[in-house]
Amino acid sequence: MNTDEFRKYGKEVVNTVADYYDNVNNMKPFPEVEPGFLFKQLPWEAPFQPESFEAIQQDIETKIMPGMTNWQSGNFYAWFSSSSSFPAMLGEYYSLMFNIIGFSWIGSPAATELEILVMDWLAKLLGLDKRYLSLNVDGTMNKGGGSIQTTASESLVACMVAGREMMFDRLRKNGMSEDEIDQHKYKLVAYVSDQTHCSGEKAANILGCKVHIIQSDSSFRLTKQALHKAIREDKSNGLVPFFVCGSFGTTNTSAIDDLNGIADVAEAEHLWYHVDAAYAGAALACPEFRNLAHGIERVDSLNINPHKWLLTNFDCSALWVADSTYLEKGMCIKREYLPQNEGNTMAREFSNWQIPLGKRFRALKLWFVMRMYGVSGICSHIRSHVEQAKWLERQLMENGNFEIMAPVVFGLVVFRINPGALNLQGNLNSINRINIDFIRRINGEGRIFIMNTLLNEQVALRAPIGAVH
Ligand code: PLP
């Protein structure tokens, strides 16, 4: 394809994208296809002769689109939304144009430095503590800072590695030999709650350490007391606590852990303290939500996903660390072909902040979003979703047939058919079955797509409000 053809087809693609967004709310949010539907329609080998754009475009419309789950539909409530906006798409397009693999400052200075600036902008927009900023007011580079990762899950693994490095260093300083430290690898234990996103447990599995899943309280929060008790038990069994993950907005109910209380324990026990704010962290753009995050200024690492609720297309996961020393220690592998600007602290090597070597130029889309929406536009976006969630909560309560299962703080409404109001006699299983049946009937209509979760053995429906368009 030459540049003239690219100009022509590029316009067609942009038109198709615009048409899609104009019509997405009229499409079914999930497709009516059976597993294997595409294998029956497309060849099982790549074509030997080149094919035309038109042939592929036709397959997009007739074979791919009918099998798409339409995450951008306003009728999609199945999981937290996948944020998308035209400014982000334009930024992403420039990223495709440059197509750099920005693992090193010299790999593309503008990409590294824009990422540093954009992450500082975002940290300030969310009201984060200055420990998480890369640039000090005097223009020097801080020990902490932000970087854009692929996902919250990947950020968590990287931070757990950093926490392990921090613990090893501590053991070393306490006079332990490398052999003894090696033995301790198998005694390390990370703490999450039964409401922590599954990526917490997965990260521990990847590291090969133990994970202690602590029961949350009646409000689905991890408390200081529960963490303290779990650590006491584990230490008496010879284990070595090293990491705790708190949540600001859990997946099930958007509950907020006792962030400040957990910080007390983490400090006393020398744990790496990570906060997963993948979904609800975006709300911190609005000052009225910041008092809910008391203690967040004390964490070692903090992660939010602009690709969930901040108008930025997947993938864009923002990770801040208060001090990058242990993250870099855990992630840096030196080779001759990988330049390291050791003498120049202004030239950050982002491959030492993440699991993959390669890094996409993701800062562009976040930059476009922050510039084209402005802080005011971002705050109105968040507030309008919270208002819509409150509206839904009111409708459900006024209807009388439903009960709200968790406080509606952000954009997530969790509810179920109220067994009392409908005079439903029966045990938990039959109430659960009725709610599962209700979800099947809603999804069966094909108008909206919604999912359930399980809270204390009770089936509940989750309706996250977050569609941009
Ligand atoms: N944390 C929370 C609270 C989530 O809801 C999710 C996904 O929905 C994740 C982490 C994982 O996000 P990612 O897909 O970026 O790994």
Automatic annotation (TrEMBL):
Keywords: Decarboxylase, Lyase, Pyridoxal phosphate. Its cofactor is pyridoxal 5'-phosphate. The keyword Aminoacyl-tRNA synthetase does not apply. The modification N6-(pyridoxal phosphate)lysine is found at residue 308. It holds the Pfam family Pyridoxal_deC. It comes from the Eukaryota. GO terms for biological process: amino acid metabolic process; carboxylic acid metabolic process. GO terms for molecular function: carboxy-lyase activity; pyridoxal phosphate binding. This is Aromatic-L-amino-acid decarboxylase.
